[in-house]
Amino acid sequence: MVAEQRDTQSGIGGTGTVLASYGRGVLVQANGATLRCALTGRKQRIVCGDRVTWSYPPSADGPAIQSIEPRRNLIERIDARGRAEPVAANIDRLAVVVAAEPAPDWFLVDRYWAGAVLKDLDGLLIINKRDLGTDAMQPQIDTYRGLNLPCVETASHSGVGMPELARILEGGVTLLVGQSGVGKSSLVNALVPDAAAQTDELTRDVEGRHTTTTARWYQLGAHCAIVDAPGVRDFAPPAHLVRAAERGFVEIHRLSVNCRFKDCRHMEEPGCAVRSAVAAQLIAPRRYESYRRLFRLYEKLAS
Ligand SMILES: Nc1nc2c(ncn2[C@@H]2O[C@H](COP(=O)(O)OP(=O)(O)OP(=O)(O)O)[C@@H](O)[C@H]2O)c(=O)[nH]1
Ligand SMILES: [Mg+2]
Ligand SMILES: [Zn+2]
Questions:
Q1: Protein residue closest via CA to atom 14 of ligand 1
Q2: Domains defined along the chain, listed by start
Q3: Cα within 13 Å of Cα(248), Cβ side
Q4: In whole angstroms, what is the distance from residue 261 CA to residue 267 CA?
Q5: 175 CA distance to ligand 2 middle (Å)
Q6: 42-92 confidence digits (pLDDT tens)
Q7: Which of 108, 151, 201, 240 has minimal CB crowding within 10 Å?
Q8: For residue range 131-157, what is the model confidence (pLDDT) as tens digits?
Q9: Handedness of CA 34, 36, 41, 46 (dihedral sign)
């Protein structure tokens, strides 16, 4: 429910969390109500998860954002030209959702996870639509489990695995990412009883589909929230981080201390411990290929 009335309790405004950011305004949750706030004249870039102060400027006809509190972090994706676009702020955990359908893009999963590592976020892999089977994904799931990435299998439709997921999400703010159609919004609907009612009007596109177009924050408890992000193919660690590709791949980073050259890029250099480990199957060749792809992408973006 969107409360447009003047908050007679506080009179002039307060602080709150940004639930969603649109072109010309933001939805702010404050004191249990949802306010639609306008942005003020200055060029404000406000994202889902921002903590803001709002008030009623005398000349305006509704509440407006006054300031943004400093962010703990800002999660961005990069567009085709390498430009960063903010998605959400003040996040603790990045949960990558995959499913048997649409067929998983494991390079995308590796990019997301690398991005989480670089931002010091906890990582989580959610294997959704368990009812459609997980056999084809098992080798990849085993690889991620072996690298200590927590994995949970769910079916948002039937409720399988949902209590376990809810337990993992307790405490902290989790950002859900993954290909369009893997069931991110369905997971939110299963976790948040009134989520559908909250988002219906916000997310339905002209054809009546429920594809998510902007990141949206749902409060699950006093210290627990979940952010539903649009399915994106272009999320990655920001390209300006020099050693980004390597640090985000935990097993490659771990072995890199044994390379002959301190600045080894693990591409063609002699004495590369990472390539030896790949040859010896100590590093999954598929993961190493993801690393190379990300590395080349950065080279391209930097040139
Ligand atoms: N079989 C099966 N289908 C599911 C399950 N969860 C979701 N779906 C279906 O998957 C489709 C996509 O679900 P959404 O929740 O909209 O997917 P999304 O990841 O939010 O997609 P975007 O918003 O486009 O990024 C819908 O048709 C759902 O009904 C599940 O557990 N099992
Ligand atoms: Mg969605
Ligand atoms: Zn090396």
A1: 183
A2: 13-68 (2.40.50.140), 74-228 (3.40.50.300), 244-302 (1.10.40.50)
A3: 29
A4: 12
A5: 12
A6: 677 899 999 999 998 877 778 999 999 999 999 888 766 767 788 899 999
A7: 201
A8: 999 999 999 999 999 999 999 999 998
A9: positive
Ligand 2: distance of its center to the CA of 233 in Å? 14
Taking Cα atoms as reference points, which of 144, 115, 111, 114 lies closest to residue 127? 144
Per DSSP, 40 falls in state P
Whole-angstrom distance, CA of residue 269 vs CA of residue 288? 15
Please give the Cα distance from 67 to 11 (Å, whole number). Answer: 18
What is the DSSP secondary-structure string of 65-125?
Answer: EEEEPPPS-EEEEE-TTS-EEEEEES-SEEEEEEESSSPP-HHHHHHHHHHHHHTT-EEEE
Q: What is the distance between the alpha carbons of residues 172 and 223, in angstroms, rounded to a whole number?
A: 6
| Cβ atoms < 10 Å from Cβ of 111 | 25
Ligand nearest to the CA of 235: 1
Higher pLDDT, 60 or 199: 60
Structure tokens, 294 = 């990300």
For residue 157 and ligand 1, the question of a CB distance below 6 A is answered with yes
Q: Is 148 exposed, middle or buried (0-12, 13-18, 19+ CB in 10 A)?
A: exposed
Atom of ligand 1 nearest to the CA of 189: 15
pLDDT in tens, 203-228: 455 555 556 668 899 999 889 999 99
Residues with a beta carbon under 5 angstroms from ion ligand 2: 184-185, 212
Give the atom of ligand 1 at the shortest distance from the alpha carbon of 176.
19
User: Nearest 5 degrees, angle CA 219-CA 224-CA 229?
Assistant: 60
Our mutation pick for probing the ligand 1 site, out of 162, 186, 187, counting the most ligand atoms within 8 A of Cβ, is: 186
